[in-house]
Recover the amino acids of this structure.
């Protein structure tokens, strides 16, 4: 089978100044690898017509597939179209659908479209125009001197949508690669990367299809399985076998696959059990409930909560007893439990969860930053409360607290 | 003064597979910019002898300063030395000090040095050998065909140490650049990138010191000013002049510089005015208050809030009148105002702010996703309420709502 050489070009002086990082090249490389396409070069070039032209000419001389990100925007230093025109002599025309979309965007916002926005609707005559569903400038695919070119916006969200919807399917057709590559991600919480890797050491070593790649992430550890076979069913079956082998060892810490999130799984369990939840949040300041509400359909099971950052709010609005606050303090098991019980009752919910502690930088009531109590209360009157010491700065501590709350709640519901 | 063209080359197939991101190029670019050295290209090439040779040859043909990261390690696919030797015909010798260090490293750990580790001590004869204080492979600086080459390990920690201790001082001597480079970032909210650029078009065009670079970000638009002069005072004065010129045109939308955040500026204003704030949040689910509380010292001015996601919570806990909910609905000006007033009173705060609307995906009470009302209430009884239509998916709408809330509040306090 023919081997296609791919090259990724990012256009933008902000990259050469180090103001932003070329995350587009990394993401595109990962995706292309999963389609069996080899990337031979990443190149970054600034917003300078001559240098972009030279970069394009070199790419065309050595690569079969060239993906260009950036330089399609409205401003004068967006030069991708001009540079490619000067090496290809292709005609640039206005794309009516894209122009309509841009006009509509400004009309809807009742704001004036400045003339430079018109630039974004210009495309190469004869190119396949790719609809930008999350922004304004459309993408393009075209063939020139035997190379396939894809032009995509530099904004990662827009680039990813266009690459996924249009570019990868196009390239798959082009390369005729019939091997199906399928990946799945297994997600774990409550276990570290090195421990997970240790538990699975022999399996990881013995395994080549699917490949097994553990990766630490901000919200836990994931394992990416990637299988290659001649049909979707066969690849799926390879993935499933290895998944079961892994879960047999570390299934206790497993919570979901692929796009599933811990907050999503919590919402699913709450729906299955038909339970409403309410949260009383001190140091997390609303972040926990906000995370649950980020899930579509959360309204069925999320009542809301009380953000009781100030002590007087704990007492006057949430009704934590003066006695508890004075004798035990706001950073205590007792306060956490009263918060969970009271928010559950006030909001008439099946479950109450509470967060109190010290986000820092300073200490509170003699407790160092990172001291956190999380409590859960249910309608039977049974309460659960745990103390944690988290490391990190103010916002790391707040995020770890929310993540731990989701973990506890997930296990509690399961 | 002579302008030096710099190029940064990363060698490593792992970058082309997207397994890691080329953070080295970003960091080196930032640093070089501050030394007044312009970077014209970033290039990534895999561990393939011929392609690394080609990349090096191209770099030497177009760049005065070439920094290479990676490919100096012990394994067979570390090919940087071999590739450069083949274009330069320089002799490679073993560096005794580096070899001694490597041996010492293994002796200290009582582990056996595999033969391939010897490879790391090899350097080009006549090069300046740079001591790696945090790892094994030394770096090198040399001049070849009028270009200055620096070879550095790919491990970021090692690369940064060698660049800081040896490469940048060397380059500063080379370029004879005594100029101080200073940057500042001006931050704006409530104005788009193209509108901002349109307003400042003539200033941007006429200006070369400081340079003016607008950039759209998730939370607004920023302008980076970069000035070059013979003293810090002179550079500061250039920045200040241009800043004033810009603020004269678009100062209404300006909220801060450099590391300042919109939430931080809101907290600062609240402290100055000695005002406590409370929030009633429906679709934002606690995200707004959480954003304020993310600021250090927020406890002085943030009371907390009520997350009234469920209608019964709006009515029973927050005390929005049944009449309002039945006749106007929860997604209405009237409901937003009652929410702001009631949360301010219940939490005994100077200011109440509220968010109600439709995060989507479905519509609510006949309002499409993205319909949002934000209200502010103060102790004088004056209320402010605005309606917005935001685009995007559920969480984009929620984030835009929070950002708009910060914007309104900032203007309100200012």
């Amino acid at each position: 089978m023919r081997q296609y050489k791919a090259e990724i070009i990012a256009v933008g002086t902000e990259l050469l100044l180090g103001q932003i990082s070329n995350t587009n090249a990394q993401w595109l490389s990962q995706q292309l690898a999963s389609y069996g396409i080899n990337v031979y070069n990443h190149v970054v070039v600034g917003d300078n017509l001559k240098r972009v032209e030279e970069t394009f000419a070199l790419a065309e001389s050595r690569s079969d597939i060239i993906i260009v990100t950036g330089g399609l925007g409205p401003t004068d230093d967006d030069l991708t179209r001009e540079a490619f025109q000067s090496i290809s002599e292709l005609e640039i025309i206005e794309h009516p659908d894209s122009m309509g979309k841009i006009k509509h965007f400004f009309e809807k916002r009742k704001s004036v479209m400045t003339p430079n926005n018109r630039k974004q609707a210009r495309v190469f005559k004869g190119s396949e125009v790719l609809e930008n569903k999350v922004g304004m400038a459309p993408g393009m695919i075209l063939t020139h001197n035997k190379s396939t070119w894809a032009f995509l916006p530099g904004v990662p969200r827009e680039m990813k949508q266009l690459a996924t919807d249009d570019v990868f399917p196009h390239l798959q057709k082009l390369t005729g690669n019939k091997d199906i590559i399928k990946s799945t991600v297994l997600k774990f919480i409550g276990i570290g990367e090195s421990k997970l890797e240790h538990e699975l050491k022999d399996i990881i070593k013995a395994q080549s299809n699917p490949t097994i790649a553990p990766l630490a992430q901000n919200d836990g550890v994931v394992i990416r399985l990637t299988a290659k076979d001649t049909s979707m069913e066969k690849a799926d079956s390879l993935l499933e076998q290895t998944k079961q082998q892994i879960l047999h060892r570390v299934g206790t810490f497993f919570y979901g696959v692929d796009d599933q999130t811990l907050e999503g799984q919590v919402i699913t369990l709450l729906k299955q059990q038909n339970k409403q939840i309410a949260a009383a949040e001190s140091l997390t300041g609303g972040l926990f409930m906000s995370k649950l509400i980020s899930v579509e359909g959360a309204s069925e099971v999320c009542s809301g909560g009380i953000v009781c950052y100030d002590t007087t709010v704990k007492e006057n609005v949430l009704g934590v007893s003066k006695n508890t606050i004075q004798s035990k303090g706001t950073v205590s098991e007792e306060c956490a439990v009263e918060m969970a019980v009271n928010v559950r009752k006030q909001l008439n919910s099946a479950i109450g969860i509470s967060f109190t502690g010290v986000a820092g930088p300073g200490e509170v009531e003699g407790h160092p930053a990172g001291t956190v109590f999380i409590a859960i209360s249910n309608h039977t009157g049974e309460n659960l409360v745990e103390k944690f010491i988290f490391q990190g700065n103010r916002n790391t501590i707040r995020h770890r607290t929310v993540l731990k709350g989701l973990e506890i709640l997930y296990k509690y519901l399961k």
Summary: Chain A touches chain B through 80 residues (CB under 8 Å). Chain A has a mean pLDDT of 92. The radius of gyration of chain A is 27 Å. Residues 64 and 146 of chain A are 7 Å apart (CA to CA).
